[in-house]
Each structure stands twice: as structure tokens, then as C-alpha cells.
Design a protein that fits this description.
The structure is a homodimer.
Chain A lengths: L1 E3 L9 E6 L12 E16 L7 H9 L4 E9 L9 H16 L6 E6 L9 H12 L6 H7 L8 E9 L2 E10 L12 E6 L5 H11 L18 E6 L13 H23 L7 E9 L2 H13 L1 H8 L5 H9 L11 E6 L2 E7 L2 E2 L4 H8 L3 E7 L5 E8 L3 H8 L4
Parallel strand pairs in A: 4-5, 8-9, 10-14
Antiparallel strand pairs in A: 1-6, 2-3, 3-4, 3-9, 6-7, 7-8, 10-15, 11-12, 11-14, 12-13
Chain lengths: ~400, ~400
């Protein structure tokens, strides 16, 4: 498997574009994106578990319930959530897109991201539709990735190539997500495209399984968004024999999907609102998969641990504290904790108690941007990884006046 | 019932003191406190639910398992948690205290608060014991309240007087808690003294019941501490007929205890690390007590809501979002949300969707220090209140380099 350029346009037969249409006031920010497959594609999706669901999520879920979709339309700057006319607006976005592309409205995946509870006016979208469609191209992945950004500071895209039955296949994806990110579920907007031929059932199965170890293991701030959505389109243009059951081809596809999703997870965590560091908590030696996941997520979500990491302070007591209140049944006296980064690795806690360590070395390790927090539970053979970021002044700044 | 001065020394027969003995480097900060009852007192306690338990918690629980205690010793600056010799050190603190006061070591309540995982050296405590005991006085409540402070910016004490069977009774308390505060349980250090005559069983019952609506409903940062403890001593010197069953006297006592605890909760929330505002989420119209509590706590814990309040931004979508992911089974389309403070009240969301409101008025309301977030679920007759604070730059600053 190789990492390749192209993002959502890496796979055969996918065009994309992103422009500024006027939903956002800042004219230099793209605020609407489109992705279109040359052929109707198999579609699968996973959505937020928040009871408050963005209107676009409801419409998208309905539209791809038949297992197929052709295009994605997504705006930033307004979440179209908690508005009395939300469903109507989301459906009109599909209709506008469908009319412009000459496809049925119910073959469109619609998504919105931004502030909650402010009516979304369709005028800019309607006015910009011609430009958006006219600009669709096979190398428009970056523009599309930019159009879905909110407080993101970096564009998030990745693609991989691999072979199935001798055919070259590709999966590419773009993601956005910076705040209001927390398991479970999906925790952000992610659109994945592939040219693999796969049945709707197997595509949904691959996605639903994969997010358990990827997007469900990311937390920026503990707030599960109302508009989370991960949607995959697979148009079959790689011409492999259709994957319609488990087996080698399905496993190859799942592995490639996992590579794309893990990459996006790390990017999203590292670009958490205000983040200066990407935190990766790797738990090993757990008695069950559930315990490993619970512990890893609890550490990543601890405000105190996150603030300590911002300060490059090896305050491991906060890691142990977060494990202790996670709800997982663990034996504290068997737990070891280490910090690791490019600058080295240092053990700070053994069997649940502190060990002497060089504060200087620890500081050097924690001053790096990518930090691993290694937790060994000494209790079994299960492991899990969760991703997050540090808690910084800028998180507070960004969220203290998000609407203004 | 009247609010009176005196804190933990308001009730008859309680002396207290707090001094700097040298656990903390800053010589202007008191770092050890003692509270002593003239007579052996009935004792009850509740403790952290964190699996990582401070050594003092374990020793205190054992010491008051017979239902009685005479004194409290508590240091700040070091939590004596996650240390190999923690239990031994906590027991020695009780022994030192007992010897100095001429009481058995197992009549001593011991507590520690501060950094986790650094061995606690007894030398300063041993050296300061004579001064601490010599300075005990019937108006030493404030000194004791100061000696248990860590990152607290204000001393927290309160007392009330009331009558039971014609006898004047008092309950007073001190608390500390600023960071690492989250349900469940106890979530901080609180010591309560009373001169009421009450049996050990009824005292424990009163405390265990009361914390469900008080200390378990406070969150500063979602991190449940390892050293949380609320201990009540009641020495019977008010000479009321001993309360040993439910009834009018017990209810009167519970009401007074609730007043003291609620007052301390509000003080602790309002003095959360870095806080500029005290947030009070009042949920009404819930279908059950559990739903009301879950919703109130979820709103109070939402980082995004907390950051919005810091910015005096009426971003009610975040409140609704936090209700949606709380796990409580509610009907979003029935929810109303209002903000209230001394400056007025404004409704911002009706039936789960935004209503037009004056941003100017909302700003004026949210610029106050004490903010109420009112949530009506329209689903039943249960209600609950939770307390928290805003998320600020200073929270990050305080916790970015707590140890240095």
C-alpha cells in the first residue's frame, strides 16, 4: 500500500471543487464543497449519536438508505441544526445540487458544519451553484478539502493505492474537525471516495467496523457534535471483481480504509482547536478490548492531563487519576506509564507508584509536537489507541467568541 | 435557620488552627490545618470513587469505621497519593496528631491535597506540630480554611444556626477545591463540624443522602480527584436529644446540612481554577430524577458551553448539544433554554429550535459573574441543579505548569 496525492480525487472517476459562495463573511474562505462520481457509487455512512441531530444528517441517512449516491454537497459556516426549517433547507440543497448535475436529489449526500441554531439561507448556495459545478475537476480535492474547514488550521486529505485481484485500487479522503469532537461517534465530517467495486452491505460493514478503532477514538474537547458524519462512496471504476463477502479482498480493502481513517484521525486530533500537540494514548495489557478503549479515551479526555501536556509537564499523576475514574476495572498497582516522542522515551510510573526520573529528559520529550502516552495495565493481551490534543489558551480564545 | 460566622469553629466545642509548616515552599501560605473537638465526636465520611485513592482516604475510612473521631489533620501541597509509602505516612500523621493531642491515632481524620505521586516528607509536619496544637483556638476556623487551600483563590467557610427540640444547634464547614473536580463523588475536601447529638448511623445517612444533590453535582473540569473526602464530626454538645431515627429533628438537621453543603458547592464552583463565572444549570420538567441530574451535569461539563460563557456568548446550541449527548432519554423538540442573571432573563431556544432574541440583552445578562442556565425538558416533574464554572485562559495557565 502506498500513500499517494489527490485526496478525494485520487480514486478513478471522482471530481471535486470548493469555492466561496458567501455563507461566510470572509471572502478568502471557501465555504462550499462538492464531490461527484462519474458513475453512481455505492454509499455507506455513520452518523453522530447525539440526540440533537443536524438536519443534513437526517436527509443524508435517508438519501443513502438504498445504498447508493453520486454526489456530496457540504457547506461550512452554518450547521443547519436546531432550525425549524432545517430539513427543508437540507432537502433543497440536494435538489439544487441534483438539478445542477442532472441527477436525482436523493442521490446527493448533504452535510453542513458551523454554528448551531442560526437559519441557513440558501441564496448564496443557489447563486454559487453554477460556479461550483463549472469548476469541478479531477484535481479539485484540495479545494473541496478547504471548503469544509471551520476552525481547522490545516487542510486534511490523504489517499492510498493498493491492489485487489491484480487491479490497482485507490481510497482517498478529506476530513474536517477541530472542536466539538468526541466519541462516540464519527466525531467530525469525513468524506471518503474509492474506485473499488464493493457491495453496499460490505461497504457499510467495513466502515461501521473501522470507525470503532479510528474516529470513535478521537476526542478534542469531550463535546460530541450534532453533525458528525463519515460517508464513503465507492464507484467500482477500478474494475476489480465486486467484493460481496468477507475474504482476502475485503480484508485488503479494510486495511486500506483503516490507513486512510487513521491518518485523518491523527490530523484531526493534531489540529484540535488551539492545539499545539497531538496526543496518542496507547494502552496495552488490558483484560478486554472495552477496558483498553475506555482507559485510552479517559486519558485523552482529561482536561488536567491535556493542560499538563501543553505545559510539557510530566505530571503522570493526572494520567493515573484519569485511568482511576475511567470506570474500567483495572488493578492500579499493576500500571506502568511512560511518555515517548521523537526525543526519546521515559518511564514515570511503575506498578501504580512514581519512579525517579530525569525531569530534564521528560521535558525534552514532552516539548515535541507528537506525544505518546504509553499505559501498560499488566492484566491481559488487549490494546487500544486514542488520539487527542493538548488544552491551550487558544482553545479558550477560539471558543470564547466563536459566533462573533 | 441563620447564616452565622465562625466556619468549623461555629459549633460548640470545636477548636481549629492552620499554619505554614514547610510542605509548601511559599512561606506565606499555610499548609497544614487541624480541627479538634473537645469531646469525641460522631463521624461520617464519603470518599472519591476514583480507583486511584489517596492513602489518607484509606486511613481515614478505616479510622472512622467505628463511627467516631476527635480530630482532623489535613495538609496542602502534596496529595500523598501514588506513593509506595503513602499509607505508612498517613498513619504516621495520625500518630503525630494523636500524640500531640493525647488521643488515640485512630480517632484522627487525615487528609492531604496537592500534587500526586511525590513522596510526602513528614519532617515539616513533625516540626510544626507543637506550633499547630499550641495555636488551636475557638476562633481558628479561618486559619484552618486557609491551610487546606491549593489553587483556591478564596477561603471557603460557612456556618448556620438552627434549633432542634428548643436547643440551639450549629453546623459549620470549610472546603477546598478548585481543580480536579467532578462527580461522582465528594469531589473535593470538605470538613463539617456540628454540635448536634446524632447517632453515627443517622449522621452517615444524612451525609450520604445530601451529597447526591450537592457535592456530586459540581464539576470544574471533569477530572474526579483521587483524594476527595467529605467528613462530618458531630460532638453532641448542643445537648439536643440524640437523633437516632428519621423524623422532624433529623429533617431539620438534614436541611441545615444541605444549606451548608450547597453554600460550599457554589463557592467551590465559583472558585474553580481560573474561573471568572459561576454557572448554575437548573433543569426542570424531567421525567425522572436521574434524567434531570444527567442533563444538568452534562451542560455544566461541556467545555464548549463553558468557553462560551467565558466569552459571554449566548451560544445556546452548545447547551442543546450537551443535552443531546448526555445519554439522557429526552425529547429535543420539547426543550426550552433560557439564560438568567442579576441583569435579567432571556429565552434563547424554544421547542429545540432557536428563537429571535436581543444579542445585546443576552450579552448584558452573561457579563454577570453568577449565571443560571435554565433548561426546561417539558417531560415531567423532576428537577436538578448542577454547579460549575467557565473555562478560561487561566485554567490552562494554572494547569500547564502546576508542579513548577
Amino acid at each position: 500500500m502506498n500513500i499517494i496525492p489527490g485526496g478525494v480525487c485520487a480514486a478513478k472517476g471522482f471530481k471535486a471543487n470548493g469555492i466561496h459562495c458567501g455563507i461566510r463573511k470572509n471572502r478568502t474562505k471557501r465555504d462550499i464543497s462538492m464531490i461527484v462520481s462519474d458513475k453512481k457509487a455505492v454509499a455507506a455512512g455513520v452518523y453522530t449519536t447525539n440526540l440533537v441531530k443536524g438536519a443534513p444528517n437526517i436527509v443524508t441517512k435517508k438519501n443513502i438508505s438504498d445504498g447508493y449516491a453520486t454526489a456530496v454537497i457540504c457547506n461550512s459556516g452554518n450547521a443547519n441544526t436546531c432550525n425549524a426549517n432545517g430539513i427543508e433547507i437540507a432537502e433543497k440543497m440536494c435538489k439544487l445540487t441534483g438539478d445542477a448535475l442532472g441527477i436525482p436529489a436523493n442521490d446527493v449526500v448533504v452535510a453542513s458544519t458551523g454554528v448551531i441554531g442560526q437559519p441557513l439561507c440558501l441564496d448564496p448556495i443557489e447563486a454559487g451553484m453554477n460556479e461550483l459545478v463549472a469548476g469541478l475537476s479531477y484535481d479539485g480535492g484540495k479545494a473541496a478539502a478547504e471548503g469544509i474547514m471551520t476552525t481547522d488550521t490545516v487542510m486534511k486529505e490523504v489517499a492510498v493505492s493498493f491492489t485487489i485481484g491484480g487491479k490497482e485500487c485507490k481510497i482517498g479522503g478529506i476530513g474536517k474537525g477541530s472542536g466539538m469532537i468526541h466519541p462516540n461517534m464519527a466525531t467530525m465530517l469525513v468524506f471518503i471516495t474509492s474506485d473499488v467495486a464493493i457491495s453496499p452491505e460490505m461497504l457499510q460493514k467495513a466502515l461501521s467496523c473501522d470507525i470503532k478503532t479510528t474516529f470513535n477514538m478521537v476526542s478534542v474537547d469531550g463535546d460530541t457534535s450534532t453533525n458528525d458524519m463519515v460517508v464513503v462512496l465507492a464507484n467500482g471504476m477500478a474494475e476489480n471483481t465486486e467484493i460481496n463477502s468477507e475474504g482476502e479482498d475485503f480484508n485488503t480493502f479494510c486495511k486500506a480504509l483503516n490507513t486512510v481513517n487513521t491518518y485523518l484521525c491523527r490530523m484531526i486530533a493534531g489540529d484540535g482547536e488551539g492545539a499545539t500537540k497531538m496526543l496518542e494514548c496507547k494502552v496495552s495489557g488490558a483484560d478486554s478490548d472495552a477496558i483498553a478503549k475506555t482507559v485510552a479515551k479517559s486519558v485523552i479526555c482529561s482536561s488536567l492531563t491535556k493542560a499538563a501536556m501543553f505545559g510539557a509537564d510530566a505530571n503522570w499523576g493526572r494520567v493515573l487519576c484519569a485511568i482511576g475514574y475511567s470506570g474500567a476495572d483495572v488493578d492500579i498497582t499493576k500500571i506502568d506509564v511512560s511518555f515517548r516522542s521523537k526525543a526519546g522515551e521515559i518511564i514515570v510510573c511503575k506498578n501504580g507508584a512514581g519512579v525517579e526520573f530525569s525531569e530534564e529528559k521528560a521535558k525534552e520529550i514532552l516539548l515535541e509536537r507528537d506525544i505518546e502516552i504509553l499505559v501498560s495495565l499488566g492484566d491481559g493481551n488487549f490494546s487500544a489507541t486514542a488520539w487527542g490534543c493538548d488544552l491551550t489558551y487558544d482553545y479558550v480564545k477560539i471558543n470564547g467568541d466563536y459566533r462573533t
